[in-house]
Amino acid sequence: MEANGLGPQGFPELKNDTFLRAAWGEETDYTPVWCMRQAGRYLPEFRETRAAQDFFSTCRSPEACCELTLQPLRRFPLDAAIIFSDILVVPQALGMEVTMVPGKGPSFPEPLREEQDLERLRDPAVVASELGYVFQAITLTRQRLAGRVPLIGFAGAPWTLMTYMVEGGGSSTMAQAKRWLYQRPQASHQLLRILTDALVPYLVGQVAAGAQALQLFESHAGHLGPQLFNKFALPYIRDVAKRVKARLREAGLAPVPMIIFAKDGHFALEELSQAGYEVVGLDWTVAPKKARECMGKTVTLQGNLDPCALYASEEEIGQLVKQMLDDFGPQRYIANLGHGLYPDMDPEHVGAFVDAVHKHSRLLRQN
Predict the structure, then answer these.
(1) Any catalytic annotation for residue 332?
(2) Which residues form the Uroporphyrinogen decarboxylase (URO-D) domain (predicted)?
(3) What is the CATH number of domain 16-283?
(4) In whole angstroms, what is the distance from residue 320 CA to residue 312 CA?
(5) Residue ranges of domains in the chain
(6) Which pTM was predicted?
(7) Which of 8, 82, 95, 335 is disulfide-compatible with 357, CB 3.0–4.6 A?
(8) Is 148 annotated as catalytic?
């Protein structure tokens, strides 16, 4: 620790490391908490900041990303910040056009339809150089956080990115992307390899820029059954962790905890707990006690309150949180929602969730 209060990379010294300690499996005085999509449309100040420009222009503005990342921390005593960005900046950097259609979500005007469409993609080695704006946003935010809480970087996992690139947007069945897995397994693996090769330097770049933890979002795990998941998702999830860790060592960068969140991936919890990640994120369909049983004591669990529980009264939120904390147990645990916050949620209820986690987890440790 240097006398000027600056840490090893010249960033302000971290004052609250509870989230990082829990992620590494160390003891904590209370349960740390953050929320997926904590920088989101449920905050009026977020809507105001975002109103000025289109979605991906915002993503490309380090100043705007920094402001959006910090907004929830001004309101709530969260234990981590997560950089404001989007998983689809990676397909964009690979040369695909992506637009955000208000009310509809992301849209790819020219999705991947044929095997030869893979030739349109840029060399994955150049992706990190295309995403300098994310790195700048991380560095700026890390400075402005002034050591208050750790900053999480993130990316989408290969299968989830593939679904968007092939479907051309969201889909309730992922039938086009899954058609590729069955009809074009070789091309599918080629695409998943390209995405993995792009993600590794992108995630390492985020750490070099100041990210203190990384979360990989396999948001569309639930569309795959165990067989397809083990063949087309899990090997790449494993590969990302292994290669990111090796690259960090080679670059002389300190290791950071990595989180895997495979939504609706309840059939793969045991495999995910052995995939090389310190933390496994759970959605609300998983019973915490069952998850602990099948995943053992070697990983930290993160989650998993149903986001819709925030529509309940503040009193009921407190009861639901207490039950959740009892079920997960005091250590090796990070509280979160089982999915992101929805735009129509009341910020007061988000505050009630955060406060309830802190309050009940302290009481739990006293008993």
Answers:
(1) no
(2) 32-41, 152-168
(3) 3.20.20.210
(4) 10
(5) 16-283
(6) 0.98
(7) 335
(8) no
